[in-house]
Every structure is written in structure tokens, then in C-alpha cells.
Design a protein that fits this description.
- This protein is of the alpha/beta class.
- It has two domains: 37-397, Alkaline Phosphatase, subunit A, CATH 3.40.720.10; 401-489, Arylsulfatase, C-terminal domain (2-Layer Sandwich).
- It contains 13 helices and 14 strands.
- It has helices at 2-26, 62-69, 84-93, 97-100, 124-130, 201-214, 245-248, 256-259, 270-302, 334-337, 363-370, 387-390, 466-482, and strands at 37-41, 72-74, 134-140, 169-173, 183-186, 195-196, 227-232, 309-314, 341-344, 352-354, 400-407, 410-420, 423-429, 444-450.
- Strands 6-5-4-3-7-1-8-9-2-10 form a ten-stranded mixed sheet, sandwiched between helices. It has a four-stranded antiparallel sheet with strand order 11-12-13-14, with helices on one face.
- Helix 6 (201-214) runs parallel beside helix 9 (270-302).
- The longest helix is centred in the middle third of the chain and has 33 residues, at 270-302.
- The chain is globular, with a radius of gyration of 24 Å.
Length: 494
């Protein structure tokens, strides 16, 4: 009798629940759909050319190659101001340098200039936090000014909890990473609460990222809410040599002639000569980052999160590695400005290639648009939401992306330019650090490369193409005035 009664009770309850569900459906009340997770991985100084599937640099990147085949690869994405701190500020705020106040790298000499991410800015992480996302940041932050009396980059630069812009899981540091002996502030409440590690930083940070994704012990994030995780590896940034031997060995037998294959290297250049000693370690670090990124992808798959997670692999800027006899970044050449941008969201973003000229400030509104938060994009954001373009829908697309170089504390200074699908155009102001009266002409050098005919940017064709220069100059000023960049108020003498 008890079993029969129980069965009858279960049938009654089941019928009632079904009836209730049908009623809810009949009223048009749908169960709230969970928003997608986001994993945004951006190593430092990782140029677009350094991915095997691009068939440019002779690098070993099996995980990126496979990931690219499953994703949408944006071939023309640029870092508008190819330098660590300005990129990060544009990424988080969706605003260009003059509007977000980060005009160059954060370090002690610039502390008095307030050259750091403002507490008052409403960042992508703030928006996500306000919409019930769990948020994690792992790795290099580089948006905090060290104390004025600190060494240049402030080895131990701490970001207080009220300046972390909604990130509730914090495993980060300022800008100083010794690669094999990194340190971190782990949800720290004080500047003295620092954790020293003896392990290659991308390996250690990936361990932490995997634990975050798994939510090991339930201590990393809210298990019932969507999450957004930003992973900021420092390598392949200098010092290049600090990379595990196992990755170096993968390039055994290769000489600089095998690795430095770009024809824009000056065979007699001093920096190009030094690059011969750097390149194997740089590519080894690239391969190491690829290996660690593969672990993140594997974890997402094992946890059943692959289909529910937007994954982006990109970088803050590239590395010249001897091209044009230059080291590092912060110039308009493709090796510096050109960055990877590979995005995967199964069932939503179709794999393939696209030449969308996505600018760094576009990242914030575009990601929010993909995550169903297009109505939450702050009004002060200057970037554009290109979510529909990534989803394969028709929309107005950008014809160009801006280029910036700014001197510390002087937002009106430096160089400006445009990267179009075909051209790289730069107006380089001479003595641009000096104050100039509004409307007064200043001496300028014009740079123009046809990236279609001259992909290695070896010939400046500005002089023989006055019509192109005139048109691009007009477009540059229009775009700069849209964002109220103070450089644009100085009259062009041409």
C-alpha cells in the first residue's frame, strides 16, 4: 500500500509540475538563459606573424593552429598604441588614450602625471560585475603607477582592492616579471601580502587559470553564475632568455638564418645583429605560451564548458625582433602593431577568416555585445560594437584603425596615423614634445606604405602619392576629432 500511495503521490506531483511548466510557457515566461563565459588570453609582445598557421615566422604553435581552424581569425586587427599600459587601458575602458588618461607605460617617473587607470572609469569588468559575472584576472596588470621613489617599474607595485574594477579573483602583479621567479598579489588586502614563485610564469598562471575554470574546491568563483577570466602572460616579452629549456630544445639545429626570415631585416644593422641572439628564445617562449594556452582549451573541453565559453587569443602588441633594425614595439610597423585575434564561440561564431579592422577600444563593446549586454555599454565608450560582424551579420564596418604615439604627460604630442586594409599612413611630428599654439603649423614627416604591394613596408611612397596622402590626412583628422584627440587641433601645414 505504501508503494502504491507513493506512486500515486509522485504521479500527482509530476502532473502538477508539468501543468505548472505548461502554464509558465503559455504565459511566455521562459527560463532565463545563462550568458556565455569569457576567457580572454593576451600574452605580452606576441606578434601576429608568430603563429604557425600564418605561414610567416617559422614557429611551432600546434595548439594555436588547431584553435584557429575552429575559430574566426581576424587578420587585420591592430594594437592602436602598441605599448603595454595604453593597450590595457583601451581594452578595459573602451576609450582612446586622451580620454582614459593612460598616455604611455605606467612607471615611477610618470606617477606625478596620474598616468594610470582611473578608479572612476567604468571598465568592461565593472559592467560584467554589475551583471552577476564572476571575474578573474591572472598575470600582468601594468595599470598602476609605482611610487615616485620606486625603481622605474616598481618591482612590487600593488593594486588595492578598490582599484581592481570588479575583479573578485585577483592573482596579479604590476609590471615586473622575472619570468622564472615571478611574484603575485593573491586576493591581497595589503601591499605586504605577496607570493613568490619559482616557476615559469605562464606555466604557473595556467595552473591557476585551470583551477579557476574547474572552480577547484568551490573557492574561485560562483559556480551558478557565468564567469569572465583574463589571463595576461608576460612572455614572450623580454628578457627573452628566461624560458624553459624544453621549449628551447624544440628549435635545436635552427640558426638565425632559419628563424629570421623577414626580408626587412637590415643585414648590417646593430639591432638586427642582436636579434640573431634573441630570436630562438623569443620563438621558444611563443611555443611555450602556445603549450599553456592548449592546457586552457583542454580544461574547458574536459569541464564541458567549450560550447558555453567565448575564447579569445590576442596580444597587447607585437615585437620588431630586428625588422627595420628595431627592437621591441611602439612603432607603426606591422611587426609592432599587428596582433593575433582569434575568437571561438561554437554554434555562434562561424570559423574562418575575416579582415575586420577591429581597434583595441572596440574590444570592450564588442565583447559585451556578444555576451548580451549591448544595452549596458557605458555612454563614455569610444569604441564600436562589432558583435554582429563577428556573428556573420551585415553591418557598417570600419575602413581604418588609428595609430598613436604620445609623449608622457602631453596628450597633444607625438605621431598619429591610420592603418587601412591597404595602407599604413603616419604623420610624424618633429619636436612634437614641445608646446605648440593652437592652429600653428609644425614640421611633419609623412610616411605611407602600400601593404598590398609592399607587405614588409620597405619603401615610403608618400612623396609620389599626394592624392592618397591628402585623402588619408583628411580621414585621419576626421577620426581624431570624433574622439576629441588634442593632437588634431594643431593645423596640418600641407
Amino acid at each position: 500500500m505504501k508503494n502504491a500511495a507513493a506512486a500515486a503521490f509522485a504521479t500527482t506531483v509530476g502532473t502538477s509540475l508539468t501543468s505548472c511548466a505548461n502554464t509558465v510557457a503559455g504565459l511566455g515566461l521562459k527560463k532565463k538563459k545563462k550568458r556565455p563565459n569569457l576567457v580572454y588570453v593576451f600574452p605580452d609582445q606576441f606578434r601576429r606573424q608568430a603563429m604557425g598557421f600564418m605561414n610567416e615566422d617559422p614557429v611551432i604553435t600546434p595548439n594555436l593552429d588547431k584553435f584557429a581552424s575552429e575559430s574566426l581569425v581576424l587578420t587585420d586587427v591592430v594594437s592602436n598604441f602598441p605599448l603595454c599600459s595604453p593597450y590595457r587601458a583601451m581594452l578595459l575602458t573602451g576609450k582612446y588614450p586622451a580620454a582614459n588618461g593612460v598616455l604611455t607605460n605606467c612607471h615611477s617617473r610618470r606617477a606625478k602625471l596620474n598616468n594610470e587607470l582611473r578608479k572612476s572609469d567604468h571598465c568592461i569588468s565593472d559592467v560584467l560585475h554589475d551583471n552577476n559575472y564572476s571575474l578573474g584576472y591572472i598575470g600582468k596588470w601594468h595599470l598602476e603607477s609605482p611610487a615616485e621613489d620606486a625603481d622605474t617599474y616598481g618591482k612590487y607595485t600593488w593594486t588595492p582592492p578598490d582599484r581592481r574594477h570588479g575583479f573578485d579573483f585577483w592573482y596579479s602583479y604590476g609590471s615586473f616579471d622575472r619570468h622564472l621567479e615571478p611574484h603575485y598579489y593573491v586576493n591581497s588586502k595589503t601591499a605586504d601580502d605577496v607570493t613568490e614563485i619559482r616557476e615559469w610564469s605562464p606555466k604557473h598562471e595556467t595552473d591557476v587559470a585551470v583551477n579557476y575554470i574547474k572552480n577547484t574546491g568551490g573557492k574561485y568563483r560562483e559556480s551558478n553564475e557565468p564567469f569572465a577570466l583574463f589571463v595576461a602572460y608576460n612572455p614572450p616579452h623580454p628578457a627573452y632568455k628566461f624560458v624553459p629549456e624544453k621549449y628551447k630544445k624544440m628549435y635545436d639545429g635552427k640558426t638565425h638564418k632559419d628563424l629570421l626570415t623577414r626580408p626587412n631585416l637590415d643585414p648590417n644593422g646593430e639591432t638586427s645583429e642582436k636579434a640573431k641572439g634573441w630570436v630562438k628564445d623569443y620563438f621558444a617562449a611563443v611555443t611555450g605560451v602556445d603549450d599553456q594556452f592548449g592546457r586552457i582549451l583542454k580544461c574547458l573541453k574536459e569541464q564541458g564548458l567549450e560550447d558555453d565559453t567565448i575564447v579569445v587569443f590576442t596580444a597587447d602588441h607585437g615585437d620588431m625582433m630586428g625588422s627595420h633594425d628595431l627592437r621591441s614595439k611602439n612603432v607603426w610597423y606591422e611587426e609592432s602593431m599587428g596582433i593575433p585575434f582569434i575568437i571561438r564561440w561554437p554554434g555562434h561564431i562561424k570559423p574562418g577568416k575575416d579582415n575586420l579592422l577591429l581597434s583595441t577600444p572596440d574590444n570592450m563593446p564588442t565583447l559585451l555585445g556578444l555576451m548580451g549586454l549591448e544595452n549596458k555599454i557605458p555612454k563614455a565608450v569610444q569604441g564600436k560594437d562589432y558583435a554582429n560582424a563577428l556573428l556573420g551579420k551585415k553591418m557598417e564596418r570600419p575602413d581604418s584603425a588609428l595609430y598613436f604615439y604620445i609623449k608622457e604627460g602631453k596628450p597633444e604630442s607625438g605621431n598619429r596615423g591610420l592603418r587601412t586594409h591597404r595602407y599604413t599612413f603616419v604623420i610624424k611630428r618633429k619636436k612634437s614634445g614641445k608646446k605648440v599654439k593652437k592652429g600653428k603649423a609644425v614640421k611633419e614627416e609623412i610616411i605611407l606604405y602600400d601593404n598590398k604591394k609592399d607587405p614588409y613596408q620597405m619603401k615610403n611612397i608618400a612623396t609620389e602619392n599626394p592624392k592618397i596622402v591628402k585623402d588619408l590626412t583628411a580621414e585621419l583628422y576626421r577620426e581624431l576629432k570624433k574622439i576629441n584627440d588634442p593632437w588634431s587641433v594643431i593645423r596640418n601645414p600641407n
